[in-house]
């Protein structure tokens, strides 16, 4: 498959972007793996309408800018106790209405615990903004020792996986817990437990070994894109080098272009750069994260599919006694929330305090509350075992 073509049309917008205002972790030395030339099954490559022009036109540019601006709203500033009967501002009224729709997973813990009775919980955790607070420098998004201890403890009781937009190696370096499963690059790089039929049925799934010498299944559905992603990463570094504050991060099967530290007046320049580079790559698309433009292959794979894949790998699919819980803060986590909501399979929990529409069932304000929630799950499990 020709992954680069001059017949290509320009960059695609994230369908989720607003259209108007309105385990086994391996360390960085991943075993060498050259993916076979894949014949993707029908429907695996997403068909996305394109527009051929080298210039980010005004209309598209405003869509991009709206999406860029709304991508990471500041946390809600509480004017007073908004659970109070008499909220003081319109924002508080809106916040209360939002909280009624996405109640706190801590305040509603009894409800969650009732639903979990007799069920096996499987935990899926996003990293940035969920286990670690959002910080200006992506290289410094460390999780606290307390959070690490709580995640470690939770993994003693529930199968636990991290599903991140970062490269799998990078997120493992931050988390450093060998008892978890890891999916990097928005689920496009999964190291999971060995299950015979899984690798037989899926192209780009191979048997491999983790750093501890344990056999694992390594699933990299976008394996063929590796050279293209490298090339695009280098071009993006080159074209953004003069934009103060811009940072390009290679996440193996996707690339992040950060604009958190770029002056807002220069955001269009960042958008134009990304657009200019991507116009020659019809098999790459763009999605929006928190003050980050994410470039990724157009394959039909996302965090939701990664959850389904991991549940299958863990032998927890199609079981009535399994309750998957996914905790995440970002737009890309919505795919996982949706998968759990759709079959009434489990719960998505959105981390954040800025009201936004979501497929999640509950909410948590910030990583500190995520930690509290993990503690409560463990306490519940321990008491039910007594
Ligand atoms: O799926 P995730 O684990 O949430 O990863 C999504 C992106 O997270 C990181 O960027 C975000 O967090 C940074 C550190 O707090 C912050 O500086 C940046 O503005 C956020 O967008 C990571 O750097 C990206 O590569 C991930 O795709």
TrEMBL record:
Obligatory cofactor(s): a divalent metal cation
Spans annotated as Disordered: 1-20
InterPro entries: HAD-SF_hydro_IIB (IPR006379), OTSB-like (IPR044651), Trehalose_PPase (IPR003337)
A single BP term in Gene Ontology: trehalose biosynthetic process
Keyword annotations from UniProtKB, A to Z: Hydrolase, Stress response
Pathway noted in the entry: Glycan biosynthesis; trehalose biosynthesis
Pfam family, one: Trehalose_PPase
Catalytically driven reaction(s): alpha,alpha-trehalose 6-phosphate + H2O = alpha,alpha-trehalose + phosphate
Annotated EC: 3.1.3.12
Spans traversing the lipid bilayer: none
GO molecular function: trehalose-phosphatase activity
NCBIfam families in the record: HAD-SF-IIB, T6PP
Family: Belongs to the trehalose phosphatase family.
Known function: Removes the phosphate from trehalose 6-phosphate to produce free trehalose. Trehalose accumulation in plant may improve abiotic stress tolerance.
The name this protein goes by in its record: Trehalose 6-phosphate phosphatase
Organism annotation: Carya illinoinensis (Pecan)
Lineage: Eukaryota, Viridiplantae, Streptophyta, Embryophyta, Tracheophyta
């Amino acid at each position: 498959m020709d992954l680069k073509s001059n017949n290509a049309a320009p960059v695609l917008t994230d369908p989720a972007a607003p259209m108007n205002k309105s385990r086994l972790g391996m360390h960085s030395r991943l075993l060498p793996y050259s993916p076979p030339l894949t014949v993707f099954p029908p429907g695996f490559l997403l068909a996305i309408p394109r527009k051929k022009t080298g210039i980010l036109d005004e209309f598209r540019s405003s869509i991009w800018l709206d999406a860029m601006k709304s991508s990471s709203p500041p946390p809600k500033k509480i004017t007073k106790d908004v659970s109070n009967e008499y909220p003081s501002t319109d924002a508080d009224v809106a916040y209360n209405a939002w909280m009624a729709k996405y109640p706190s997973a801590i305040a509603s813990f009894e409800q969650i615990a009732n639903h979990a009775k007799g069920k096996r919980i499987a935990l899926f955790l996003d990293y940035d903004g969920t286990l670690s607070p959002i910080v200006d420098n992506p290289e410094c998004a460390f999780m606290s020792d307390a959070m690490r201890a709580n995640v470690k403890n939770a993994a003693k009781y529930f199968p636990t996986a991290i599903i991140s937009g970062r490269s799998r190696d990078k997120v493992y370096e931050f988390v450093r817990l060998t008892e978890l499963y890891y999916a990097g690059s928005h689920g496009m790089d999964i190291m999971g437990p060995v299950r015979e039929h899984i690798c037989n049925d899926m192209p780009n799934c191979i048997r491999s070994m983790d750093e501890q010498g344990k056999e694992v299944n390594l699933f990299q559905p976008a394996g063929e894109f590796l050279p293209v992603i490298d090339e695009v990463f280098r071009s993006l570094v080159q074209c953004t080098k003069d934009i103060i504050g811009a940072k390009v991060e290679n996440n193996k099967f996707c690339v992040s272009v950060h604009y958190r530290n770029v002056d807002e007046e220069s955001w269009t320049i960042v958008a134009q750069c990304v657009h200019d580079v991507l116009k020659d790559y019809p098999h790459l698309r763009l999605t929006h994260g928190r003050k980050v433009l994410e470039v990724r292959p157009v394959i039909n794979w996302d965090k939701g599919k990664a959850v389904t894949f991991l549940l299958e790998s863990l032998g927890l699919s199609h079981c009535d006694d399994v309750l998957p819980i996914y905790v995440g803060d970002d737009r890309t986590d919505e795919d996982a929330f949706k998968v759990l909501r759709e079959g009434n399979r489990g719960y998505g929990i959105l981390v954040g305090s800025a009201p936004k529409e979501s497929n999640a069932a509950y909410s948590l304000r910030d990583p500190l509350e995520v930690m509290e929630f993990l503690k409560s799950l463990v306490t519940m499990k321990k008491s039910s075992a007594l």
